[in-house]
Structure prediction request, 192 residues.
Amino acid sequence: MMNLKKIFSSEEIGLLLEALQFAAIKHRHQRRKNSEAVPYINHPIEVAITLWQVGGIREITTLMAALLHDTLEDTDASAQEILAQFGDKVLHLVQEVTDDKNLSKQQRKLKQIETAPNKSIAAKQIKLADKICNIYDVAHSPPRNWSLERRQEYLDWTMKVIAGLRGTNSALETHYDTILSKARATIAQLNN
Ligand code: NDP
Ligand code: ZN
Prediction:
């Protein structure tokens, strides 16, 4: 049973704020791909708050890794920096949710499907929250220039990744299912 009333130490709150600051600095020049081009940092905050509010996650290392989840993949942040500032547990979690940039886009998509079942519970929770946020965005504030077909294909791909993440956190999994069917309905309506 999750302890939703867990009390956090000042050290834990300090680390969470440091992770938020680190991500904000690293993503400072980046925007999401939607037409409004919202600041990139909104997305990792959304992922962390989804873990907190929907998943009931109270593990500080998981919440920190959620804030940092796109820093290795999308910024100049190094593993050494994350290790020095946040320790090996957080670093390993961020690495678990980071794609190998040496692979082609298509290989990366396939690898996410293949490796999802073997990830740690905490990494699976972060991936669930990340996909929830991204499918919501694909329905409501999609990347500029994406056709309806491409948006639908993105939703289809996330389903295959999510299949390998199930049995991890039922609230997050149910929320994914709800957001997915709403996203499909939203996109189908645009198709008419
Ligand atoms: P990308 O990986 O390039 O783009 C999606 C990623 O961008 C998300 O996973 C998210 O990742 C990030 N992102 C940033 N802003 C947004 C936003 N507003 N909404 C949603 N995501 C955002 O996608 P791909 O090019 O890999 O394409 C996805 C699918 O589309 C694939 O399955 C591919 O096969 C298919 N495809 C279809 C094409 C077509 O024309 N029909 C062409 C190319 C691909 P993060 O959280 O990490 O930032
Ligand atoms: Zn992300």
Remarks:
- The mean pLDDT is 97.
- Residues 33 and 120 are 29 Å apart (CA to CA).
- Residues 43, 69-70, 130 surround zinc ion (ligand 2) (CB under 6 Å).
